[in-house]
Design a protein that fits this description.
heterodimer, A: 82 residues, alpha+beta, two-stranded antiparallel sheet, 44% helix, B: 264 residues, alpha/beta, globular
């Protein structure tokens, strides 16, 4: 039965998707993945200095880049949350 | 009313040329007049995928430089009377054609054909720019790999900023067994990330390798890939066709052997 306990999180397909999302985020923001992660942690620290951040709260940072025609590009960075 | 479609991907080796050949053939099977233009100057391959490499006399650069008339450079397909190929030059490079010349070439072909399909080279340099210059629609090909999807995302961004409105996505080389196991990104995973609308999914099948070994299209055979390409063509013409089920029904024998293996 053990093999059925391998969670969805661990499959290589899921890892590929996470890596891809990270690569795209850092391409878009022209900022390395490491910098993004430390930015996320710092923002979280600063926020928690001013407000009480609940365990269940979700925080997102949204970057919007407007292009001349069509829809703007939006990239959302998960700072904390589910 | 002719439509100019560019087939592109960013990353090389994901199936641009094969898809161009098969989509072109599929549209010709639907009695459309189609011309395929190989814009990969210096690395032409569409001719060998179509099995027309022995018939080349003039090429795209000969036309743009005025060495021949456009009709002289068009090669008629072996099977379909409405299908033509305009091959790329092999001994030149991308810089000998400009975007302006490509637009002029496509404009000259518009009165003759229903569909003009441009096979773009890999990369985002001049070759890609030339191929996209005259297009009103793009088909972006990707495979379910991190590198190919990342490049496809970049290409979609570039096409959008060029003002191209119709961008459709084709996901090639899906292996349903690996997706089921979680060892390959699924169609949904890919469409979640990329902003283009999905127009077709192609399985990773032996039939396509065998067909291109022979220089024959896979369209028109009853292989899954052949059916999937035909469906893409029907969607291109505006028909609503549901996505093909890529999970092959297993034979009783293979199901039995899988069952026995599981027990052991």
């Amino acid at each position: 039965m053990e093999r059925y306990h391998v969670s969805r999180q661990m499959t290589s397909g899921h890892i590929a998707k996470l890596r891809l999302e990270q690569a795209l985020a850092s391409d878009f923001l022209e900022c390395s993945t490491e910098k993004l992660i430390s930015m996320q942690q710092e923002i979280l620290q600063i926020l928690s200095r001013y407000m009480n951040i609940d365990e269940t709260e979700e925080i997102q940072l949204k970057f919007t880049q407007k292009i001349q025609q069509g829809e703007p590009y939006v990239k959302t960075i998960q700072i904390k949350g589910l | 009313m002719s439509e100019v479609i560019v087939v592109t991907s960013g990353k090389g080796g994901v199936g641009k040329t094969t898809s161009t050949a098969n989509i072109g053939t599929g549209l010709a099977r639907m009695d459309k007049k189609v011309v395929l233009i190989d814009t990969d100057i210096g690395l032409r391959n569409l001719d060998v995928v179509m099995g027309l490499e022995n018939r080349i006399v003039y090429n795209l650069v000969d036309v743009t430089e005025g060495n021949c008339r456009i009709r002289q450079a068009l090669i008629k397909d072996k099977h379909y009377p409405g299908l033509y190929l305009l091959p790329a030059a092999q001994t030149r490079d991308k810089s000998c054609v400009s975007q302006e010349q490509m637009r002029k070439l496509v404009d000259d072909l518009k009165p003759i054909f229903d569909y003009i399909i441009l096979d773009s080279p890999a990369g985002i340099e001049q070759g890609f720019r030339n191929a996209c210059a005259a297009a009103d629609r793009a088909l972006v090909i990707t495979t379910p790999e991190v590198s190919a999807i990342r490049d496809a995302d970049r290409i979609i961004g570039l096409l959008e900023s060029d003002g191209l409105r119709k961008i459709d996505l084709i996901i090639n080389r899906i292996r349903p067994d690996m997706v089921k196991r979680g060892d390959m990104m699924s169609v949904e995973d890919v469409t979640d990330i990329l902003s283009a609308s999905l127009i077709g999914v192609l399985p990773d099948e032996e039939a396509i390798v065998i067909a291109s070994n022979h220089g024959e299209p896979v369209v028109g055979t009853d292989s899954l890939t052949g059916q999937a390409y035909m469906n893409i063509c029907r969607r291109l013409t505006g028909e609503k066709v549901p996505l093909l089920n890529l999970y092959k029904p297993l034979s009783l024998r293979s199901r039995l052997s899988a069952f026995i293996k599981k027990k052991a």
